[in-house]
Structure formats: structure tokens, C-alpha cells
């Protein structure tokens, strides 16, 4: 008999009403699986930071419950907080402290014994070793972001939250960051990131959640999501433009685009798995040839997570 592993983070009916009466979370349910990379997408103000802050014990929930590793985040704050690493959007640490002291201190804060070799490794992984004796105020913006990551990793968390980690960072930092993420994933660390960059979620996440206006609209395996909601398009370039779709092709749902220079045919991405799709495309090709359509290049395009996201949020707007 196999028993499913309990979720590492379990969020039930979570609500947050801020002091001014604003409802930032309206009853969110979410289970986060041990070892997964979960990307939370959502427009500005959706409630992503609020949710993360509650899980990390920095903001009090108004209702509902959050369990981390089997402990309640409000009642057992110290236990849950020490399991979590948080990379926030901004650095709030003492600017006159050195890099190495900041990171070493962060480990001590969680009651972990000193481990200079680990701190050295973390600083090296994040290309901060050369800067270890510099004060934070002497660092560039990108290096400060690296310090935030190093701080979050210093106490060897089981769960890592990255709140918009790549907003405004350069290519090198982005690459270093994903290398660190891959290394952590390999050791079984659970990673949750919020992002506006959908291609980022598409690249690295196992599952994708979409939050909008305080509600979790969906949570799905990335590949399933893209299959389910993704649309495909077959595009047929024409060697000379047409004014109308030629007769005999009415059955194929074709549209003339680009001033009559191309024909497109839209279909659902998951249709490609049946024979129906293949025989329909074969029939279409035959009909095109019979109708003497001046065919040039043929290409297909699959909608990205971005197209799916825009469609989903748009439907709710
Ligand atoms: N302390 C606060 N008091 C009142 N309202 C707040 C407070 N903090 C956040 N909010 C509001 O709650 C909503 C959710 O904010 P939150 O920061 O969680 O969103 P987000 O999804 O992280 O957005 P972003 O992508 O812009 O960071 C916003 O409308 C915000 O203005």
C-alpha cells in the first residue's frame, strides 16, 4: 500500500482583511507538495505577497489555517519559521553590516549552530565570496539581491519562498539564481516563487497557481495546464494573396489573415493526441491542393503560458 506524502504546506480557507478593511485574501485553499517547484502567478495586488507573508509568520491571518511541516504557523511560529527561507522583494538589513556577518547572523537567528563552510559555499554559489567583507551599502542593487538569497539559505530551510526574485535583475544573476534553485531542488527543498514573468514559470515550475483579486483561480501541473488550456494554430503562408477562402474549404474553419497572405486554422492543443486531428489535417491538405491554393510555408504555433494567463485573467475581469 502506498500512502501519499502529506503536503509540506497546507493552506485552508485562508482570509486576510487588512486594518483598512481591504480583503486581500478571500478563502484560499492550497496544498504544496514536498520537493516541488511551484510558481504563483498573478497581477499586481493579487495577494501573493500577503499569502507568503502569512505562511512565513510575518502577517497574521484573519481566518483559516496554515500548517507547515505539520505545525500551525501562528501557534508554532518558531518551528515553522525555521523550516522556511524567505527571499523578500527588498533588503531591510543594517546597511553598515558586512555581507558575511549578515549571512552568518541570519543562520544564528534560527538557532542553528555555526557552519562557516556552509556559509562560504553559499557565498561562492552566489558570487559573493569576493565581497564578503564589504558593507551592504557598498554593494550594487544586484549584489544586494544575492545577499537576500544567501540570507534565506543560511539556515538550510526545507522550504524556500522567492518573492518576485528576478524583477529587475540582470541575466547573470538570473542564471546564478536558477542554478542555485536547481541545486536546492536536487536536495529536496520545496521552492515557491511568485513572478510576473510567465516564461520563468514555464521554464522551471512543476506546478503553476494563478492568483487574482485574493482568490486562487487554478492550480495545475504545468504540462497539464498547457495541454488543457493551450491553443494551437496551423498557419499556411500563401505565395500570392487571396481575397476570400477558396470554395471547397468551408468545412475546415480557416481564416484569411495578413491582407490575404496567410490562412490560419485554430485548434485545441490536446486535440493533437487523437487520430481525429491527424486525419482532419490530412483532409485539409488534400482539400487545399484540390482547390489550387498557392501554398508556401506551413508552420504551427502553440500558445504559451502567457497567452493562457492573459485569457484566464481576462475572462474574470
Ligand atoms: N498593510 C496593508 N494594508 C492595507 N492593504 C494592504 C496592505 N498590504 C497589502 N495590501 C493590499 O492587499 C492587496 C494584495 O497585496 P499583495 O502585496 O499581497 O499583492 P501581490 O500579489 O504580492 O502584488 P505585487 O505583484 O504587486 O507584489 C493589494 O491591493 C494591497 O494594496
From TrEMBL:
This is ABC-2 type transport system ATP-binding protein. Transmembrane segments: none annotated. The keyword tRNA processing does not apply. Keywords: ATP-binding, Nucleotide-binding, Transport. Belongs to the ABC transporter superfamily. The keyword ATP-binding applies. One of its GO terms (molecular function) is ATP binding. The lineage of its organism: Bacteria, Pseudomonadati, Pseudomonadota, Alphaproteobacteria, Hyphomicrobiales. PANTHER family: ABC TRANSPORTER ATP-BINDING PROTEIN. Pfam families: ABC_tran (PF00005). It comes from Neorhizobium huautlense.
